[in-house]
Write a structure and sequence with these properties.
With 389 residues, this protein is an alpha+beta fold. 33% of the residues lie in helices and 24% in strands.
């Protein structure tokens, strides 16, 4: 098998020049349809079986499969195709190359990983390497917002293992944090500001809750940290209450983000918040608050000795000349949804910087090396037909 660095660079440039901003960041004016067509064409060129899925108009994902000859384990090479917005970027779609780096939105997060997945599958196909298990390449829509693409794809594809190519500087990510978005609403009673005997101020009652929340936030960071991702945390994201200066606020709404570590659950985190509200209600019968989760994404963790971790470690060591470091990340990835679905998953991706920033770039040599790691991992994991019973 041979990875052609020039082909990887050309392919990545084609991907970066396509505007695939998630519609959430463009007021609905963009989608993943064009980049999905590009990915599908590349997969068809190497003889892959291609399935295109669109659970919502324009939210297009692509699954390519190099079928195995039977009896082996299946592997999924994963990347998301959507990006965040371009903000004040001077060259969001230029794919300009300077000093071995390619610049543009999505180069690092994560079209570099997508190009590596496609190049790895091409290397396996062109070398004519027979595989016992299926090799899948997946480019999904909507990772940056609600993971619509992966949720849909998991209804038709459940591989034995997956390699997620989010950027990791060619180290292995074995864990990342999850998050829970929680809405807290305190209830008051509207009244004219001159009638204190009638009014109940929901804003001041939220202030009491925020005081307790601040103490909890400090306690969380003092808990024994997870060895790879550190301690849990929370912050108050938005706060809205009241209608006018001269009116007692009838309600106040707070949005919290709680970052979770492996081993924590939604139920446990909500119970901690509910305990704060219950204590305030016990002290003051006029204190009323409702607490409800609005979005939950679980944390991710894979055992260092898991078979897919060993396979990728061996492949990366052969390519890099040293064993990759094992680490964790504080940000969330689709890896957790794959793991939650029972797919043994590990994360490895390219070098670079600027995810969600005004300047974003990826190191091109690292993308080619990532492609070689993926190709070697695919052959080792899926196995030759003669290796199977």
């Amino acid at each position: 098998m041979r990875i052609d660095p020039d082909h990887v660079t050309e392919l990545l440039a084609r991907l970066v020049r396509i505007n695939s901003i998630n519609p959430f960041f463009s007021a609905g004016t963009t989608d993943e349809r064009e980049i999905a067509a590009c990915v599908a064409e590349e997969l068809r060129r190497i003889g892959a079986r291609v399935e295109i899925r669109e659970p919502e108009p324009g939210r297009t994902s692509v699954l390519g499969t190099l079928p195995g000859q039977g009896g082996g384990r299946s592997l999924l090479l994963y990347a998301h195709m959507d990006t965040v917005g371009i903000g004040g970027m001077p060259e969001p779609f230029s794919a300009a190359v300077r000093d071995g780096k390619m610049y543009g939105r999505g180069t690092y997060d994560m079209k570099g990983g997508l190009a590596a997945c496609l190049a790895a599958a091409r290397a396996v196909a062109e070398a004519g390497v027979p595989l016992a298990g299926d090799l899948h390449v997946l480019g999904v829509a909507d990772e940056e917002v609600a993971s619509l693409g992966l949720y849909d794809m998991l209804t038709v594809c459940r591989p034995d293992a997956a390699i997620v190519t989010e950027p990791t500087e060619l180290d292995l990510c074995l864990a990342h944090k999850g998050f829970i978005w929680v809405e807290v609403e305190t209830e008051g009673r509207a009244a004219h500001g001159s009638r204190f005997e009638l009014g109940i101020d929901a804003n001041l009652r939220m202030g009491r809750f925020l005081g307790r929340l601040d103490a909890l936030e400090q306690q969380l960071r003092q808990r024994p940290p997870h060895p790879l991702v550190g301690p849990p945390s929370l912050h108050a994201g938005t706060l809205h209450g009241g209608t006018a200066p001269s009116i007692y606020a009838a309600s106040c709404r707070l949005e919290i983000e709680r970052r979770t570590v492996p081993g924590e659950t939604e139920a446990g985190c909500l119970a901690e918040l509910q305990a704060l509200a219950d204590a305030l209600a016990e002290a003051d019968p006029t204190f009323r608050a409702t607490i409800r989760p609005t979005l939950t994404r679980p944390p991710f963790e894979v055992a260092p000795g898991a078979p897919i971790v060993r396979t990728v470690t061996e492949a990366a060591t052969g390519v890099l000349g040293h064993a990759p470091a094992a680490l964790g990340h504080s940000f969330w990835m689709d890896a957790s949804l794959l793991a939650e679905a029972g797919v043994e998953t590990v994360v490895i991706g390219a070098h670079g910087a600027g995810a969600h920033a005004d300047e974003e770039w990826v190191d091109l040599r690292s993308v080619a090396r990532l492609a070689e790691i993926l190709a070697r991992s695919a052959v080792a994991w899926c196995g030759a037909p003669s290796d199977t019973p």
